[in-house]
Each structure stands twice: as C-alpha cells, then as structure tokens.
C-alpha cells in the first residue's frame, strides 16, 4: 500500500513542508533533500538528507532505494535524475520537462515551438550584449537560470541601469503593457488526465517583483479565464507533464494572453488551494506522481493569499501581531518557521477565506493593517 | 517565535500525525513519544522517542528540554507529568484533568459532583462482584482504565455473559434506552476562552461498539444540540481544561442528555473538522495549548466521516478500491499507513463533504459499496 512507497522530494523549504502535510493524509513516507540542514522540512521527516539538489553525486546518493522522486524547486541536477531513472526510480515531472523549464530561454523556445503565445524575448550571453539594446529601453532582464521570487529579474529603464545589470546569460524581454497577471495551476498524470484550477489574479509590488497578494477566483472577464485554463492544459500536454505546473500569464491591454513563466512544482499561486479548493495543489501533486486519480480542483469559496515577508516592521511585536491575525475568523496562518533573518524573504503566508469576495477583501485589509 | 517552541506529544498514532499536519502550519517542532518504533508519527518528525507513555522514567526523559507537552491518548503516566511540571514544562491538559478522565468511575463522580448528568453506574473490583447484579441485567460493563475503540466495553445480557466478563476494576452501567449518540468537541485555553464545535451524530455498529459513521451537523432537534454545546462548555470549565475535549453524550428517548464519556484530546468525532470546519480540532488543540487565540469552530458545510477498518474484504484489491474512492469528488481519504495487520482496527478514514446533507449521504453510500 501507499505507506510502502518511498517518495523523495528535492528541496526542503515551505513548499516541501506543505507536501509533507498532505503526505500524512496518504500515510506516505517522504524523504527530503536540502542543502540547508535547518530547512523547514528537516523537522517533519525521519528521513532528511542534507545535500545540494544541484549536485550529481548528492542526488544519486539520495535516490537510492526511493520509488518516486519529485521536486519543490527547479534547480536540480538533471543528469543525476536521468541516471536514477535508468536505475528504476520514477522521476516526476520527467527530467526532460524540468530541463526545458530550468532555462527561461529554452522554456520560451519550447512554448513558441508548440504555438503557445509568450512574451517576446531574446537570449544574451552577458552584460556586454546589453548595449545593443540601448535604444530599445525599457526592457525586462531575467537570468536564464536559478531566478526565483523576484531574484534574477530587473527592469532596465536607462543606460545607467545597463551598467548595473546582471552579468550572466539572460533573456531580454519586451516590457509588455499588461492589464493583469494571472496564474493557472494545472495537474496531469501519466495516463494523460488533466485537471485545471481556476485562474488566480496576482498583484505584484512594483519595486521588488514580489507577489503582494492574489485573489481566487480572478475578478476578470470569464471568457479570458476560460481561455487561460485551456492554454494551461495545452502547456501541460506539450510538456507531457506528470505532476503539477504553475503557468503564469499576462493579460495584455488588448485582452491577449501571453505565457510569462512556468514552474513545474507546487507554486505560491496555489497556496490558497489548501483551504479554498476541494483538492489542494499539494495533494494533487501526490496524486499525479503516484498514479492515483486526480482530485477535483474546484474552488469552494473565494480566497485571498498574502505573503508574510521578513522585515523590521513585522519584527516589532511579532507575536502580538500574529495573535491578532489568528483572532480573525477565516484567516489561515502558515508560518514557515525559517531560521535566520534576511529582510524581504517569505517567512509565511495567510490565506483568507469567506463567503464573498467583498468579505475576503475587507478581512485582508484588516490583516494588512495588523502586519504593517 | 513559534518555531522555537518545543512541543511534545505523548502518543504517535494517527491522531498525533494529524496534529503534526497542523504543527507544520505553525512552523512548530514536534517531538513524539510512542512505544511502537513504527508508529505513524515516527515518519513525520526528526524527533521521535521510542518509549511507553505509561512509564515514569520514559516520560521524564522525553520531557527534558520541551516547552509544552500534550497528549493524543489518555494512558500516560500522571506522576511523571507532575514532576515535569515542577521542572517548568507546561503540561496541557493539566495532569489533574487527565487523571480525572483516565478512570471512567472517577470521571463519572467528578461530573456528578459538578451537576453534569451522566449515565448511572457503580464501581466494582472484579468479576466476583458482578454476581450481585444478576437480577439487574442487561448492563454495560466498562473497564475503569485503558479502554478505547470498543476495547474494554461489553454488554452483559445473561448470567453466562457474567462468566465471560472482564475480571478487572470496572464500571457497571445501566443500559440506557437511547435515541441518539452525539459528540461535542470543545476547546478551552488558559485564559478561560471556550470554543464549541457543532455536535456530530455518531452511529455505532451494534456488535463491536465501533463507530460506523458520523454526521455533522447532527440531524436532530436544534434545542437539544444547543443544550449539548452548553453542557460541553460546562464540562470544560469544571475540568479547568486547557486543550480540547470530546464530550460523548446520549440523547435518551425522553430527549435528556447524559454524558457518556470524555476524551481530553483530539477525537475520532472531530476528524471531519479538518475539511469541514474553519478551524480543525488539531489546529484548535495547538492554539489552546500554546496560548494563541482559539479559532472559529464554525462548520463550513455538511460532512460525514467513516472509519476504514482492517479486514479481509478491504484487502481484496485494496489499491483498486482506494483508487475508486479517490475518484469521488469531495471524498477526502486519510490513510494512516499503519504497519502490521490486525482485523478490525482503524487504518484510515474518509471524510465526505458536499453542499447538502443529502449529497453527503449519497456519496457515503457509494463509498461504502466500494470499500465492502
């Protein structure tokens, strides 16, 4: 039975911990690998392996005796996963899928080759190549690999910005004039079954490219939302995905959809599914990679998700603030229990649920006041 | 912050695992103690302590360095908990509360002394004392200590049954003519705040005293349900409870409420709160013992919970049956991943949620067909 299946997760952060939360519901054993010995997941498994998922040797060692491996971050060693696959370990999403997505330019080319609309962009080797774009500013510059949560992304507005730009292989993208940013979580299993969550609308802080809050269901035209879920399903099929995938999209001023970025794993934009959906994205991932039937992705009620970021403001009377937050009915705190102290990083989130979107927004406003 | 709090749980079964599930949401570390090295919880913590919670020495050893200890079973060594309390470890529920409840006769006397109506009963030392009740049959016989899930309970109908009865300190109870069995989960924190869940109706299999299924909200007269929640609050206050408590009650043919049994911990009759309530009983327990504000216990939608028992029927094509169950929208599987094979024991449960009680009952009927 399920308890005899040995599942491994590459990455031991909050996403991994939320996978373990659902692994408990299926009685599964989960082995976790993270390079930080104090990663959140290290507390919630008897099988924690301290090692870098980017290391060939470390992954080979970790994979011994496991039945299935999945990921909670993309920066993993693909060659090692291919090697383990040859040894009989099932790797979901497939190494090919992860590899395509790991590199933002390869990802874009893949999508284009499958006739999926994307944000136009070109590849450059390093900073020196940027000067040819001087007359095309403003532009968005993204590192091809290893960016996350706004790290590895910057907007170039002036020539001065070029001088301060990343000196690494990057994608240079047009700054699209966007009306909305949405995200669709889609799951697909090895039998080709696909389940799409309702699109969520994401609102980003302008400075840092960090998500400010997200609302589900997205409060935009239903026809666009329907197209977005169809598009997400097409991406999942094109990738022959087994697992779950976040498809972040732009809705342009002309109501066109452009795929911005993919993440082949549980995603921030699916946190709300724990409380607000019939099947959470974490349970859906486990169902997909274990060959179980996919669950109903239906939304039960409106929700809003806000990240909690490390910072001086929160640190003043943190316990008091969290207590006041916990006193709001329908405010679901997820506190990641991270060690250390790096201003700006995500240390928790709150999902607010209620019967109407208006109530959800009103509660979220109270929470924002408490946390700031 | 919360992640620096070291919480210990005595007992490492499925209830403990469901507490860990919620501990993840608060970023807490949880140390678990169980005498079975392969208990479900052993997989979900980096801090598993193999030892018997009934042992004085084992608990003292386990408690070193912990901030708070709570329980997921009553059979724990009270003297050791008192000793740890003197050393500064916070024990919730208090050792006095657990001690009163551990013994079914002491429990009954305590409730009577607080004017809480109970099933009438008397204490006996052992089997020889039973013969004086020969002319009062039928009666219900319950071991004073360590009974659970129908173990330690039997109905005496004939003189022959007396010969086959437990030979241990027991409570002899009248067989009350009951209309319904209900359970109310109530939480109370150290500041005296009380939160009551809606009563659930429990339906037991007649032979084995094992729960067949439970429905929330209970489909009985609203006035009775209101009285039941008031009664549960009174019991929590009388016990000066800090934690959560299941108050199992009988509704007699005359619509009177009688308290049947108490359990000062998460309880089977609160499993449905994971999916169906705003705050689950597991989260509520953590909030109560950590001095956080109690959460909203409100029910979001109707639900029905069924235990899954080990047995020959299930074992025929178990994986196929679970797959068909997972294919029903709103059927939430909790598979405990227990080792071994003892027919009749609980190895999982399913919570069914839907918008109407009729839909919930119809889905439950399909599930029963699948599992049988």
Automatic annotation (TrEMBL), chains A, B:
Annotated ATP binding sites: 104, 142, 173-176, 181, 260-261
SUPFAM superfamilies the record matches: Glutathione synthetase ATP-binding domain-like (SSF56059), PreATP-grasp domain (SSF52440), Rudiment single hybrid motif (SSF51246)
Gene Ontology MF term list: 5-(carboxyamino)imidazole ribonucleotide synthase activity; ATP binding; metal ion binding; phosphoribosylaminoimidazole carboxylase activity
KW Secreted (keyword) present: no
Cited Pfam families: ATP-grasp (PF02222), PurK_C (PF17769), RS_preATP-grasp-like (PF22660)
EC code: 6.3.4.18
Keyword ATP-binding among record annotations: yes
Family annotation (Gene3D superfamilies): 3.40.50.20, ATP-grasp fold, A domain, ATP-grasp fold, B domain
Pathway: Purine metabolism; IMP biosynthesis via de novo pathway; 5-amino-1-(5-phospho-D-ribosyl)imidazole-4-carboxylate from 5-amino-1-(5-phospho-D-ribosyl)imidazole (N5-CAIR route): step 1/2
Residue intervals of the ATP-grasp domain: 108-290
InterPro entries per record: ATP-grasp, ATP-grasp_carboxylate-amine, ATP_grasp_subdomain_1, PreATP-grasp_dom_sf, PurK, PurK_C, PurT/PurK_preATP-grasp, Rudment_hybrid_motif
Protein name: N5-carboxyaminoimidazole ribonucleotide synthase
Originating organism: Chitinophaga polysaccharea
Gene: purK
């Amino acid at each position: 039975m399920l308890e005899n299946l040995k599942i491994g997760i590459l990455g031991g952060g909050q996403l991994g911990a939320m996978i373990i939360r659902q692994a408990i519901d299926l009685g599964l054993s989960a082995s976790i690998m993270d390079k930080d010995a104090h990663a959140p997941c290290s507390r919630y498994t008897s099988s924690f392996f301290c090692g870098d998922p980017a290391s060939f040797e470390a992954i080979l060692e970790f994979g011994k005796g496991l039945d299935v491996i999945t990921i909670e971050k993309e920066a993993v060693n693909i060659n090692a996963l291919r090697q383990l696959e040859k040894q009989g370990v099932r790797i979901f999403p497939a190494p090919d899928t992860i590899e395509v997505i790991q590199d933002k330019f390869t990802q874009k080319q893949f999508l284009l080759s499958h006739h999926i609309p994307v944000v136009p962009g070109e590849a450059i080797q390093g900073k020196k190549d940027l000067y040819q774009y001087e007359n095309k500013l403003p532009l968005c510059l993204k590192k091809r690999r290893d960016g996350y949560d706004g790290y590895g992304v910057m907007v170039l507005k002036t020539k001065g910005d070029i001088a301060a730009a990343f000196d690494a292989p990057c994608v240079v993208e047009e700054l699209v004039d966007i009306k909305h940013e949405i995200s669709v979580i889609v799951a697909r299993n090895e039998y080709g079954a696909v389940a799409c969550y309702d699109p969520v609308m994401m609102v980003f802080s302008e400075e840092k490219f960090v998500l400010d809050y997200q609302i589900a269901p997205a409060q935009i035209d239903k026809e666009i939302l329907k197209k977005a879920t169809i598009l997400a399903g097409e991406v999942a099929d094109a990738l022959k995905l087994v697992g779950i995938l976040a498809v972040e999209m732009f809705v342009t001023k002309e109501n066109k959809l452009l795929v911005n970025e993919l993440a082949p794993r549980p995603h921030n934009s699916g946190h709300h599914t724990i409380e607000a959906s019939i099947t959470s994205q974490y349970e859906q991932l486990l169902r997909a990679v274990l060959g179980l039937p996919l669950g109903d992705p239906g939304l039960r009620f409106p929700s809003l998700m806000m990240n909690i970021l490390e910072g001086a403001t929160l640190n003043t009377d943190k316990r008091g603030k969290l207590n006041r937050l916990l006193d709001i009915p329908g405010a679901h705190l997820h506190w990641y229990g991270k060690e250390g102290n790096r201003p700006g990083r995500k240390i928790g989130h709150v999902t607010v649920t209620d019967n109407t979107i208006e109530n959800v927004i009103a509660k979220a406003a109270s929470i924002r006041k408490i946390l700031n």
